[in-house]
């Protein structure tokens, strides 16, 4: 059957966490990199489902949920909410030193304890941000475009004037996809880009 785009439904958190891990190494499977298979999802999926579940969309084919897009209309408000409501429990569950120093798990735990803040220069013009992940079976068929377009339409309807995202320089396919979707580079770092577009 054709991929169906629909709203996230309660109870699908685990499959979204799994997709996050299966695409967590610059778009490819990161399962072998992490000791804790939930860790990536706790940072890049869980808070979005709690803070802005109404914006969470999934792509479903005949084998089940195989992709998602998550977003928030106001990154600064989201960061403040995470500091109050999301990070404290995770900091207790994952104290610094839980995993070997400089391991992939350790790097994510350090993000939990010292989360980066979006650049004021970026969020002033592009306050919304997003994450999108698709399993290989949904890639290259237009499903990513459909998911992202639905999210962008939803954010525009909420009054968000622009949106940004971060992407690894190693994920060349994703960078090309975002450029085709109208995103341009607004900040460059050693290993990543921040890309943005108006809504």
How many distinct beta strands?
Answer: 7
Rg (CA only): 16 Å
The neighbouring-strand order within the major sheet is 1-2-3-4-5-7-6
What overall geometry do the principal axes of the alpha carbons give?
globular
Largest sheet: 7 strands, mixed
* Helical residue percent band: 40-55%
Query: What's the SSE pattern?
Result: EHHHEEHHHEHEHEE
Give the N-to-C terminal Cα separation. 31 Å
Oligomerization state of this entry? single chain
Kindly report the average pLDDT value.
96
How much of the sequence is in beta strands?
15-25%
CATH level 4 superfamily: Gcn5-related N-acetyltransferase (GNAT)
Helix- and strand-based class? alpha+beta
Task: Just give the CATH class.
Answer: Alpha Beta
* Low-confidence sequence ranges: none
Counted by DSSP, the helix tally is 8
Any guess at the CATH architecture? 3-Layer(aba) Sandwich
**How many domain modules?**
1
CATH structural fold name: Aminopeptidase
GO cellular component, one term: ribosome
Protein name: Ribosomal protein S18 acetylase RimI-like enzyme
Keywords: Ribonucleoprotein, Ribosomal protein
GO molecular function: acyltransferase activity, transferring groups other than amino-acyl groups
Summarize this entry quickly:
The protein is α+β, with helices and mostly antiparallel strands. The protein has helices at 13-22, 39-44, 46-51, 75-93, 104-113, 120-125, 143-157, 172-180; strands at residues 4-7, 57-61, 64-72, 128-134, 162-168, 184-188, 192-198.
Task: Describe the overall structure.
With 199 residues, the chain is α+β, with helices and mostly antiparallel strands. The chain has one domain: Gcn5-related N-acetyltransferase (GNAT) (Aminopeptidase), CATH 3.40.630.30. The protein has 8 helices and 7 strands. Strands 1-2-3-4-5-7-6 form a 7-stranded mixed β-sheet, sandwiched between helices. Helix 7 links the parallel strand 4 and strand 5. The mean pLDDT is 96. GO terms for molecular function: acyltransferase activity, transferring groups other than amino-acyl groups. InterPro entries: Acyl_CoA_acyltransferase, Glycosyl_Hydrolase_84, GNAT_dom. This is Ribosomal protein S18 acetylase RimI-like enzyme. It holds the Pfam family Acetyltransf_1. Keywords: Ribonucleoprotein, Ribosomal protein.
């Amino acid at each position: 059957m054709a991929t169906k785009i629909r709203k996230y439904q309660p109870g699908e958190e685990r499959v979204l966490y799994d997709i996050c891990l299966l695409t967590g190494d610059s778009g490819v499977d990161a399962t072998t990199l992490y000791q804790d298979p939930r860790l990536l999802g706790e940072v890049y999926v869980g808070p979005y489902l709690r803070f802005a579940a109404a914006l969470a969309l999934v792509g479903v084919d005949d084998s089940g949920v195989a992709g998602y897009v998550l977003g928030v209309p106001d990154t600064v408000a989201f960061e403040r909410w995470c500091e109050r409501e999301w990070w404290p429990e995770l900091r207790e569950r994952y104290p610094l030193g839980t995993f070997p120093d400089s391991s992939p798990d350790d790097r994510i735990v350090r993000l939990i304890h010292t989360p980066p803040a979006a650049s004021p220069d970026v969020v002033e013009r592009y306050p919304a941000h997003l994450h999108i992940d698709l399993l290989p079976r949904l890639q290259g068929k237009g499903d990513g475009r459909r998911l992202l377009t639905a999210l962008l339409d939803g954010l525009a309807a909420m009054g968000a004037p622009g949106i940004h995202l971060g992407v690894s320089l190693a994920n060349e396919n994703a960078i090309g996809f975002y450029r085709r979707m109208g995103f341009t580079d607004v900040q460059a770092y050693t290993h990543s880009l921040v890309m943005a577009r108006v809504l």
